[in-house]
Recover the amino acids of this structure.
């Protein structure tokens, strides 16, 4: 029987920490590093059942991929039920997931003074309390809140999260930023995190909003490199993008939401209706995530990316003429204006009637030629994500009159381009795929040395590929 146990869960000031103890079969996916989350205010008054949510949200998908059980002393009853719903969605989405059972000694409901009933009897593929006992607490979400907003939004300042803010701005949502996924906890990313915090804080100050900053080492407590190597064959993206990040990121917010009395927590949609990709953040995942006092929401799924940019353009015209977006894949202190995502966003802004240069993207008509050359040369590592997003832009191009000869030429090329072929031409080289495949039978210590080396080589190659 495979399993992962959550041991020594503690809250010391603003720091959450616990140990992960795996069975032998799962050791390659778990390091010896304690799972840790840093918040920006004390979490010592948060019940253990809520404190367990961040680690369970990140560990359970790994367990489900291996048919493994998870053991924890205490869990919030509402979240235990939510995990069952999320698991059902993920198992339907990914054939390689096997499922597993969460076993808790105690279940709690911080909002009730009466003892909570056991979630299940522990039999089969369901959540169970191993001794049937329960705990209660007189405090609950809102009891330690400081009078701020009762809604929150995961926020980076990109297109999707800015659209989510525009949609919910009357709620004055707390802006939540998380370090530990695209910005790692490594010292090498300190400057990136500082830039993000400064930008989000500035946006919050301009709009009279509160902020919440969270830092985690989830990708080092769980062996992210080995998860990527082992499961890349099953997914279009990486482990967290395809499987774990909707539940994982939202779960990290639970102690923060408890201390602030957050009732509604929004995460911005990346995709939209009609896109059927194996993506780890979707309505049928995120909308299931909940815990006592808090319901999570996958926001903006009813609009395409271009339609979200249109809504932002309306907001710019009516309320925020100097708004700047941040979407760059290269920099966090502004936009480089040269990566695929910068170019794609700049074109979207122009199609929405905005001048990209006024909103954070240096852009001129000559850039249309660079975009075409880069796409044709396979200079960017593109996936199905990007194919859908360029197709979305192409749909808008059909309705748009070009402003210049270069724009017209680019529009005509895009309307005739084989987007599926462009994505296929951008596939990682065979040597990279072979390394990932070989790592499935490679000792973790060896793979952890080899994979960053290969990443570095590929990064240098991408920088010198023609058309970049």
């Amino acid at each position: 029987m495979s399993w992962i146990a959550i041991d020594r869960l503690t809250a010391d000031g603003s720091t959450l920490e616990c140990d992960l103890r795996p069975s032998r079969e799962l050791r390659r996916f778990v390091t010896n590093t304690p799972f840790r989350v840093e918040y920006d205010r004390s979490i010592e008054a948060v019940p253990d059942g809520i404190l367990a949510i961040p680690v369970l949200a990140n560990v359970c998908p790994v367990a489900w991929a291996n048919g493994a059980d998870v053991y924890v002393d205490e869990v919030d009853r509402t979240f235990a039920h939510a995990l069952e719903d999320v698991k059902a969605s993920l198992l339907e989405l990914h054939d390689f997931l096997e499922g597993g059972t969460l076993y808790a000694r105690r279940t709690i409901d911080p909002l009730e003074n009466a003892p909570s009933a056991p979630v299940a009897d522990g039999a089969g593929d369901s959540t169970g309390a191993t001794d049937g006992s329960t705990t209660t607490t007189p405090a609950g979400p809102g009891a330690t809140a400081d009078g701020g907003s009762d809604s929150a939004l995961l926020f980076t300042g990109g297109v999707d999260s800015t659209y989510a803010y525009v949609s919910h701005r009357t709620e004055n949502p707390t802006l939540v930023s998380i370090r530990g996924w695209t910005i790692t906890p490594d010292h090498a990313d300190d400057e990136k995190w500082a830039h993000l915090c400064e930008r989000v804080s500035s946006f919050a100050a301009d709009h009279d909003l509160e902020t919440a900053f969270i830092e985690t080492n989830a990708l080092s407590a769980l062996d992210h490199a080995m998860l990527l190597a082992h499961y890349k064959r099953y997914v279009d993206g990486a482990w967290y993008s395809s499987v774990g990040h909707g539940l994982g990121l939202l779960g990290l917010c639970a102690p923060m939401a408890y201390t602030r009395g957050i009732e509604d927590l929004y995460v911005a949609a990346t995709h939209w209706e009609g896109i059927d990709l194996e993506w780890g953040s979707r309505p049928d995942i995120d909308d299931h995530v909940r815990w006592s006092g808090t319901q999570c929401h996958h926001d903006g799924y009813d609009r395409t990316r271009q339609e979200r940019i249109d809504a932002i353009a309306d907001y710019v015209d009516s309320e925020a003429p100097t708004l700047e977006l941040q979407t760059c894949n290269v920099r966090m202190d502004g936009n480089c204006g040269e990566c695929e995502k910068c170019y794609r966003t700049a074109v979207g802004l122009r199609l929405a009637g905005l001048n990209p240069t006024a909103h954070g993207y240096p852009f001129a008509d000559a850039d249309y030629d660079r975009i075409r050359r880069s796409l044709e040369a396979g200079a960017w590592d593109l996936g199905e994500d990007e194919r859908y997003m360029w197709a979305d832009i192409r749909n808008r191009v059909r309705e748009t009159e070009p402003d210049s000869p270069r724009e017209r030429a680019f529009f005509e090329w895009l309307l005739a381009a084989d987007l599926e072929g462009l994505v296929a031409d951008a596939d990682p080289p065979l040597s990279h795929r072979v390394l990932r495949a070989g790592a499935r039978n490679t000792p973790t210590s060896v793979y952890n040395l080899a994979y960053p080396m290969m990443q570095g080589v590929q990064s240098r190659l991408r920088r010198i590929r023609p058309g970049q």
User: Anything to note?
Assistant: The first strand starts at residue 3 and ends at 12.
